């Protein structure tokens, strides 16, 4: 064999949660929303003129950018959109994390961060969470840990734990010379967003997604809001990589979904309500967990190993997420589904844990 393999960019890829497809399954493993997208989305798709597909989409995705800028009361120049927040965050790593000094993120967090760092050759350092899965803000201060940038999800995944905004602000305040990215994939389920801090910090980038709270994981829509200058740098990199990231359908239905605020508020409120009820049920079943402000609960059972519960649920076609990783291999991440789905889960657990 030739030596061509020496020149291959090799990476250990990110492992997405499995996407099983059984008619009777209860899918609580990848934090999707159990409710359909806003009704206007269906209507729009049914009426869509396929002739628009002949043409390249609008590279600026103006319709969607305008809708987001209006909704979040920011300038259109402060909004960047991409193919899910995975795309937005990957572009942000490429754009903002170019220092020789390691970037920082928690040791237990979204498992894509170290993969992007590896693939882009960005040095990184993982800062351990406390034993109760909380971020220790001081360890991110530049005077304590010199760094080339920071990314923190708030609430964190897969723990669901919220970092209070005052503490997050301290991290930003202590890092004026690098970009701080806050990944707010789960922000609409009750935690406080960092968006109001944009007025004070020009090095803050807030990233959100349509995949969880807006029920559109399959459409792949994510966005970032930040200082005009940050966004313009982000667009420069995007146009140097793939100028047509958002397809014509995603731009249309994304803008439509943002307009229906009543539906958005109604469905997120339902999920929050189901989550609070699920917390009580899980406690009663002998599970322990930190308080979650997301659409999932990261729980361990007092006596039964997580892997055993995971396997038993899987046999029933009830899918939750299990990570065979240090510190978290006795936890299950359970997405909040409909109340009926959760009832089925609890009914089974009640029986299983008693035997
Ligand atoms: C789900 C998730 C994302 C990615 O979502 P997209 O579907 O790519 O928008 C990003 N960060 C965290 C922490 C997530 O949980």
How are the SSEs ordered, and which strands pair?
Elements: E1 26-27, H1 39-47, H2 62-72, E2 79-82, H3 84-96, E3 103-106, H4 113-119, E4 124-127, E5 150-153, H5 165-173, E6 180-183, E7 204-209, E8 222-226, H6 228-239, H7 248-259, H8 261-284, E9 287-289, E10 296-301, H9 306-315, E11 318-319, E12 321-322, E13 332-335, H10 339-354
Parallel strand pairs: 1-11, 3-4, 5-6, 6-7
Antiparallel strand pairs: 2-8, 7-8, 9-10, 10-13, 12-13
Mean pLDDT: 97
Strand content: 5-15%
Q: Give the cofactors and ligands.
A: pyridoxal-5'-phosphate
The SSE string, one letter per element, is: EHHEHEHEEHEEEHHHEEHEEEH
Shape: globular
Rg measurement, Å? 21 Å
The CATH topology of the largest domain: Aspartate Aminotransferase, domain 2
Q: What's the arrangement of strands in the largest beta sheet?
A: 2-8-7-6-5
The number of helical elements comes to 10
Total number of beta strands: 13
Q: Termini separation (Å)? A: 57 Å
- Structural class, from secondary structure content? alpha/beta
The name of the CATH superfamily of the largest domain reads Type I PLP-dependent aspartate aminotransferase-like (Major domain)
CATH architecture of the largest domain: 3-Layer(aba) Sandwich
Helical percentage: 25-40%
């Amino acid at each position: 064999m030739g030596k061509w393999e020496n020149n291959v960019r090799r990476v250990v890829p990110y492992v997405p949660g499995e996407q099983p497809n059984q008619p009777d399954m209860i899918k609580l493993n990848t934090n999707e929303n159990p409710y359909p997208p806003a009704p206007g989305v269906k209507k729009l798709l049914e009426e869509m003129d396929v002739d628009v597909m002949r043409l390249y989409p609008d590279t600026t995705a103006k319709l969607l950018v305008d809708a987001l800028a209006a909704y979040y009361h920011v300038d259109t120049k402060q909004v960047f959109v991409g193919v899910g927040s995975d795309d937005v965050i990957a572009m942000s790593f490429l754009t903002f994390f170019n220092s020789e000094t390691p970037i920082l993120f928690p040791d237990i967090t979204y498992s894509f961060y170290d993969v992007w760092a590896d693939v882009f050759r960005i040095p990184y350092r993982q800062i351990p969470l406390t034993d109760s899965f909380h971020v220790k803000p001081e360890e991110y201060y530049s005077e304590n840990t010199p760094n080339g940038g920071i990314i923190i999800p708030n609430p964190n995944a897969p723990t669901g734990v919220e970092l209070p905004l005052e503490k997050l602000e301290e991290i930003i305040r202590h890092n004026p010379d690098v970009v701080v990215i806050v990944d707010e994939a789960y922000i609409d389920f009750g935690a406080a967003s960092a968006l109001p801090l944009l007025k004070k910090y020009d090095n803050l980038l807030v990233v959100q997604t349509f995949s969880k709270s807006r029920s559109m994981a399959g459409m792949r829509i994510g966005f970032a809001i930040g200082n005009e200058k940050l966004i313009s740098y982000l667009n420069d990199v995007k146009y140097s990589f793939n100028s047509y990231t958002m397809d014509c359908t995603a731009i249309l239905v994304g803008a439509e979904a943002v307009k229906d605020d009543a539906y958005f508020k109604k469905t997120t409120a339902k999920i929050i309500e189901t989550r609070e009820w699920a917390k009580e049920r899980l406690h009663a079943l002998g599970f322990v967990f930190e308080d979650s402000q997301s659409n999932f609960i990261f729980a361990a059972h007092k006596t039964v190993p997580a892997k055993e519960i995971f396997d038993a649920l899987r046999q029933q076609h009830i899918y939750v997420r299990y990570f065979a990783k240090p510190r978290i291999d006795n936890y299950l991440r359970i997405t909040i589904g409909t109340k009926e789905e959760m009832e089925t889960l609890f009914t089974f657990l009640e029986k299983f844990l008693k035997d």
